[in-house]
Amino acid sequence: MQPVFRFAPSPNGLLHLGHAYSALLNERLARTCKGRLLLRIEDIDILRCKPEFEHAIYEDLGWLGLQWEKPVLRQSERFDAYGKAFACLKDMGVVYPCFCSRKDIAQAVADHMTEEVDPDGAPIYPGTCRGLSLAEVHSRINRGDEHAWRLDVEKALACIDEPLIYERFEPDQNNNAVKSISAFECYSLRWGNPIIVRKETPTSYHLSVVVDDAQQGVTQVVRGRDLEPATDLHVLLQKLLGLPTPVYYHHELIRGGQGEKLSKSLFSESLAELRAKENTPEDIRRMLGFY
User: Fold this and answer.
1) Which among 28, 61, 212, 290 could bridge 285 via Cys, Cβ 3.0 to 4.6 Å?
2) H or E stretch including 111?
3) 86-254 falls under which CATH superfamily?
4) Ranges for the Glutamyl/glutaminyl-tRNA synthetase class Ib catalytic domain (predicted)?
5) Is residue 182 within 8 Å of residue 168, measured between CB atoms?
């Protein structure tokens, strides 16, 4: 089977060196493995994603010299596919509606006197809405109360009759080829009951990414180390939905001068700003170790 890699940025800001590293690493591994490279635009966040940022993604990646297959998959055009996947989870009885606001959750966490957090650093949801009766759920939905949908991880795990295992691969020291593959066990319970369908959009990152990886035939997922814990949840969703599980590699993050993770929210220096300072694509590649 020909390997399929993908780079999947969100158009909610300008790309920085961290994005460039991930894109270039996917490109190199795809080339050396004689595989395919896909670009996916993850624009389900309808409030923050902007057309000008999507255009900037194409401009930045083209400037770096990357080439990818067309057409580009845009998640905002695939809500029907995510809806079908969610319907499957709903039919299995492994999701429940959550009417809590952030304030409600903060108060419930305080009442439970717990300091547990999920891998993203958010307080573990205490399951306030998990025990609501069907009558109350229907009543609140029918009157238009805003709600998200959460995955009941314990129920979900009970539906799986095999160990949750995925494989990681390690490139060699020059990121030119696969050096080794190892199996790792998932720890899905550390996520609590995560949101699978958000209040403001009919999907979530976790649901969309597993549906799209399967639809696009992605076989190797190469992404930042900060997303490594999400793999536990993604493998669980893949098993529930009968989707294939890719092989994963989570690379080290590019950090700023103070050791901080580069971030759009922190306004880390963008590729556009570096280009305006007369840096060349060769300068960026050399800076990131690709020469």
Assistant:
1) 290
2) helix 102-112
3) HUPs (3.40.50.620)
4) 6-280
5) yes
Query: Structure tokens of 206?
Result: 């976790």
CA 70: distance to chain centroid? 21
- In the chain, where does the domain assigned CATH 3.40.50.620 lie? 1-77+255-291, 86-254
Topology classification of domain 1-77+255-291: Rossmann fold (3.40.50)
Q: Could you give the strand order of the β-sheet that contains 95-98, starting from the edge strand earlier in sequence? A: 95-98, 148-151, 195-197
> Which amino acid, 40?
R
Terminal alpha carbon distance of the chain: 29
SS3 179: strand
Residue 222 pLDDT > 80: yes
Query: What's the predicted TM-score (pTM) here?
Result: 0.93
Evaluate whether 224 touches 253 at the Cβ level (below 8 Å).
yes
